[in-house]
Amino acid sequence: MNTRYTLKNGYSFSRIINGGWQLSEGHALKSTIEKQDVLKAFHELVSRGFTTFDCADIYTGVEEFYGVFLKEHLAAGGKREDIQFHTKYVPDRSVLAELKPKDVREAVHRSLRKLGVEQVDMIQFHWWEYDIPGYLEALHELQKLKEEGKISQVSLTNFDTPRTREIVESGISISTMQAQYSLLDRRVENAMQAYCEEQDIALLCYGTLAGGFLTDRWLGQPDPADWDNRSLVKYRIIIDDFGGWEAFQELLNILKEMSGRYGCRIANISTAYILQKEAVGGAIIGTRSSRHVDANGQTLALKLEREDVTKIDSFLARHPGPKGEPFELERAEDGPHIKVMLRNLNEKS
Ligand SMILES: NC(=O)c1ccc[n+]([C@@H]2O[C@H](COP(=O)([O-])OP(=O)(O)OC[C@H]3O[C@@H](n4cnc5c(N)ncnc54)[C@H](OP(=O)(O)O)[C@@H]3O)[C@@H](O)[C@H]2O)c1
Question: Which parts of the sequence belong to the NADP-dependent oxidoreductase domain (predicted)?
């Protein structure tokens, strides 16, 4: 599998993207992050071609931390263009109704300052509530900032297919869609994937490891009663949407048997399966240490045989997983997802 993915407009990023949520304040619930070890992992990842970093304005402290990494990279003789920073603009739920173009502009400039760059490679735009108008206006301002050279690519995250169509038809050029896509959650397959393929929008997928659940670590383990970090809280709900802990364990057993034959780990299969799907540009893997740096190369080297894909697919056919559009369940005011989400994180920064 290629290490990189290139969009029709020539913009290129690594197929495995280093995810930054894991580094944000409040993500870890028990353990601590060793920042020096993370910086070491970043340098190693870049030297092996994993040059793209995902973050968000709401991942407290992460844009600044990427800025520190960039300074180290430049001081060591590296170039700015060696690295791609994909951040997000996630206006707080509480300000959506009053959002003005100048707020959009200020937010992007804040991200540029924190990252220490003149141009950000990608802004992925998120909108908490479709019932509140304003997302098209905000996106038009992002497009203006792109024309001014402050942003290279304007993208979306967690939008559904009808709104994505509306946005594209309003004349905004969208490069990628960041959405949850994993063996446990295939909601993009309902409509989004086909639309992305039609429009040359690349899917950037989060959750291919379900926060670490789709790895050897959880094989044969009891359903946990408490949590190490917020990713596990989030994806434990998806396991329920998928069919529960027993069905999840059945899936891990299938993947374990396969990984033995390929000489790899469950994590490699979980991500490789998604990377081989139509319209998928990249998978974003949370990086909070140097522990898993080698695994990225192993995942890209893996080619799943047709009969193994069929075996996984026939199991998944019996467990179709969460229903609806991407992020639809997460938006439901009476659902379990919204209770664990923080929708006003910019208030703090
Ligand atoms: N747009 C959105 O709404 C959204 C939502 C969620 C995430 N994201 C993005 O996607 C990124 C991924 O986050 P995620 O929460 O979905 O987590 P994830 O990538 O599914 O899981 C990350 C965890 O998996 C474990 N791991 C990583 N590589 C492994 C390997 N090769 N073998 C075994 N375990 C491995 C690590 O756990 P240990 O550190 O414990 O070893 C790591 O912390 C985020 O950082 C963020 O950039 C975006």
Answer: 15-315
Q: Which of 15, 3, 1, 2 is nearest to 202 (CA)?
A: 15
User: Which runs of consecutive H residues, i.e. helices, occur in 116-229?
Assistant: 135-147, 161-169, 192-199
Q: Is 4 domain-assigned? A: no
Digitized pLDDT (tens) for each residue of the chain, 349 residues in all = 889 999 999 999 999 999 999 999 888 777 788 999 999 999 999 999 999 999 999 999 999 999 999 999 999 999 999 999 999 999 999 999 999 999 999 999 999 999 999 999 999 999 999 999 999 999 999 999 999 999 999 999 999 999 999 999 999 999 999 999 999 999 999 999 999 999 999 999 999 999 999 999 999 999 998 888 788 889 999 999 999 999 999 999 999 999 999 999 999 999 999 999 999 999 999 999 999 999 999 999 999 999 999 999 999 999 999 999 999 999 988 878 877 766 676 765 5
Give the span between the Cα atoms of 341 and 74, in whole angstroms.
36
Separation of CA 210 and ligand 1 centre (Å): 7
Handedness of CA 18, 21, 23, 24 (dihedral sign): positive
Q: Which atom of ligand 1 is nearest to the CA of 299?
A: 31
Ligand 1 contact, 46 CB (< 6 A): no
Closest atom of ligand 1 to 288 CA is 39
Return the CATH number at 191: 3.20.20.100
Give the number of domains in the chain: 1
Q: List the residue whose alpha carbon is closest to atom 21 of ligand 1.
A: 211
Look at the alpha carbons of 281, 57, 229, 45 in this order and tell me if their dihedral is positive or negative.
Answer: positive
